[in-house]
TrEMBL record:
SUPFAM superfamilies: ARM repeat (SSF48371). It holds the Pfam family Arm. ARM repeats lie at residues 1-43. This is Ankyrin and armadillo repeat containing. InterPro entries: ANKAR (IPR043379), ARM-like (IPR011989), ARM-type_fold (IPR016024), Armadillo (IPR000225). The gene is ANKAR. It comes from Loxodonta africana (African elephant).
């Protein structure tokens, strides 16, 4: 019963007595029962009232106690009694120990609490935090950086407000100093500010922050390297182009070192960097193989106590190395993966891992490893003695994403392979009812993916509907998807059409008849590079169809810039009919438009 008595002493007007009582409380507030007693005795409003006193010792110790209280989930109560404006008001002082304790308290109040993050912004606390980044004190620099990290975390509005107040130049300046501890906290702030915020990512990249963060990867301490890696990957953003750029900046050696690191975060970033580099790039895939990048990935697959997020990233990386533009395969990387004995490890995960997410990603990666490789297909099915049943049952999972991903894995196994289609048919009854929810989905990317996978490639596997009708429906859905105003849908559809243009005979003709060429040409003028690239790839593969060849040639002759756009945007690994290029050059020399 001591705590209520001490709280009563805080309410008396004698400053020395208040200091003694607060001093005692700050020595015991790290204990959970003490915090509960403080809250029950209405200690929070009493402590906040002392923040407006004239005594710095009271300010400092009250901030420490409120920090301890906030760590046990009383953040909203502190905010209710106007604790945040009272704390922000103390940031005007010039006493380091008070400032450190106040900022630490604000930091904890903002952890996973959007209302408190907004309160710091609304009560003009941001400008003080930014000012301390340019302080002469390394302690204040570090503490303010850590506080900014939590004030901004996962809150786009606050991230933007900090950028508007000018947080970026002083934050970048921290990395030009020599104090590693300050730079680690600065990297925390960078990670938090840049997370899912393209404008801030761009601003940091323009200030050449990457080269400073790369220096953290050379540090001896693992926590320093870890924070450097995480901050770099926050700057990589969500677009493939930016992620690829960042992975190239990090370089093969650092990426492989990350995969070999004991840190789960570094392993994750390493896996994501491999995915970004290898996506649609045979050159990078081959260089990763030649640089001994496969062995660390397979080693991680064998670790039993690996974080699920890291494991997912590594599994995806193994698959990504083996598959290229428009579902082409890379026999070189496929061979490297098999040589490292990845098959048994992946099969073990597919059979025994408790997570359906892991199982479905393993199925997809296995499909990538054997894609269009008859030798590996035979080795996979005969030597390892497994059937499609372990993938088929994932298609009945309650999670829609897992069902769709399982369908995608089956699609890759069956892609341009009649024998595998027959084996899927033999392994169990597959009906249209499994796919109907996706084909009727309001999510455009789901609908397009379902049309590609389950209708066009698996059409002969579905037993209760005529495969010609299924294929026709799938083609119509994909052509309709090209009229979407969502860039992600257009990119996906362009890539899927590119794949289908070199699959079954008749499919390219069907796309051409429905006006696909004209619509793909329309998207060549998109502001988004990913859209232009995907549609250019689709057009390139469609030129192998005589009718599509003729229509696209007419388009390019009447609008010569059309050809330049295709050539400038088509992926390096994509294919375009050499006869089309030759014919266009000849027609260009003649110089007449098409009638």
């Amino acid at each position: 019963g001591t705590i209520p008595a001490l709280i009563n002493l805080l309410k008396c007007p004698k400053i020395k007595l208040q200091c003694k009582a607060v001093g005692l409380l700050s020595n015991i507030s790290t204990h959970v029962p003490v915090v509960h007693a403080l809250v029950e005795a209405e200690g929070i409003p009493a402590l906040i009232n002392l923040l407006v006193s004239e005594e710095p010792e009271l300010h400092s110790r009250c901030a420490v106690i409120l920090y301890d209280i906030a760590q046990l989930g009383n953040k909203d109560v502190i905010a209710k009694y106007n604790g945040i404006p009272a704390l922000i008001n103390l940031l005007q002082l010039n006493i380091e120990c008070v400032l450190v304790n106040v900022m630490n308290c604000i930091r904890v109040l903002c952890i996973r609490n959007e209302d408190n993050q907004r309160a710091v912004r609304d009560h003009k606390g941001i400008k003080y935090l930014i000012t301390f980044l340019s302080s002469d004190s390394d302690v204040l620099k570090a503490v303010s950086s850590a506080t900014i990290a939590e004030v901004a975390r996962d809150n786009t509005g606050v991230q933007d407000a900090l950028a508007m107040e000018g947080v970026i130049p002083p934050l970048v300046a921290l990395f030009k100093g020599k104090q590693l501890s300050v730079q680690v906290k600065g990297a925390m702030a960078v990670e938090s500010l840049a997370s899912h915020n393209p404008a801030i990512q761009k601003a940091f990249l323009e200030k050449s922050l990457t080269k400073y963060l790369l220096k953290l990867l050379k540090a001896f301490k693992i926590d320093v390297k870890e924070q450097g890696a995480v901050a770099l990957w926050a700057l990589a953003g969500q677009t493939l182009k930016q992620q690829k750029y960042m992975a190239e900046q990090i370089g093969y050696n650092f990426i492989i070192n990350m995969l070999l690191s004991p840190s789960a975060k570094m392993q994750y970033v390493g896996g994501e960097a491999v995915i970004a580099l290898s996506k649609d790039s045979r050159m990078h895939q081959n260089q990763i193989c030649e640089g001994n990048g496969i062995a660390p990935l397979v080693r991680l697959l064998r670790i039993t106590k690996i974080a699920e997020g890291t494991l997912l990233s590594v599994i995806r990386a193994v698959g990504s190395i083996c598959i290229g533009v428009a579902h082409t395969s890379n026999p070189i990387s496929q061979h490297y993966v098999v040589e490292e004995n990845a098959f048994p490890v992946l099969i073990q995960l597919l059979r025994n891992h408790p997570s359906a997410n892991i199982k479905v990603e393993v199925a997809f990666s296995l499909a990538c490893i054997v894609l269009r490789n008859d030798l590996l297909q035979n080795e996979f099915w005969e030597i390892l003695e497994i059937s499609y049943n372990c993938i088929n049952y994932l298609m009945n999972d309650r999670n829609r994403d897992i069902c769709l991903r399982a369908g995608y894995a089956l699609t890759l196994f069956a892609f341009n392979n009649r024998f595998q289609q027959y084996l899927i048919l033999e392994s169990g009854t597959m009906t249209i009812s499994i796919f109907e929810p996706f084909l009727e989905s309001t999510i455009e990317t789901e609908k397009a993916m379902a049309a590609f996978q389950q209708i066009i490639v698996l059409a002969k596997v579905i037993i209760d509907v005529d495969h010609i009708a299924l294929s026709a429906r799938g083609v119509n859905i994909l052509v309709d998807s090209l009229y979407s105003d969502q860039a992600s849908t257009t990119v996906l559809t362009g890539n899927l059409i590119a794949s289908l243009a070199h699959s079954r005979a008749g499919i390219p003709e069907a796309f051409t008849t429905l006006g696909t060429i004209q619509r793909l040409c329309y998207h060549l003028y998109s502001e988004k590079e990913e859209v232009r690239s995907a549609c250019s790839c689709a057009l390139g593969y469609l030129t192998y169809n005589a009718n599509a060849f003729r229509i696209l040639l007419k388009e390019c002759r009447n609008k010569p810039n059309q050809f330049i756009r295709i050539r400038n945007n088509i992926s390096r690994d994509a294919s375009i009919n050499p006869a089309f290029l030759k014919e266009f050059e000849m027609q260009q020399k003649v110089g007449l438009p098409s009638l």
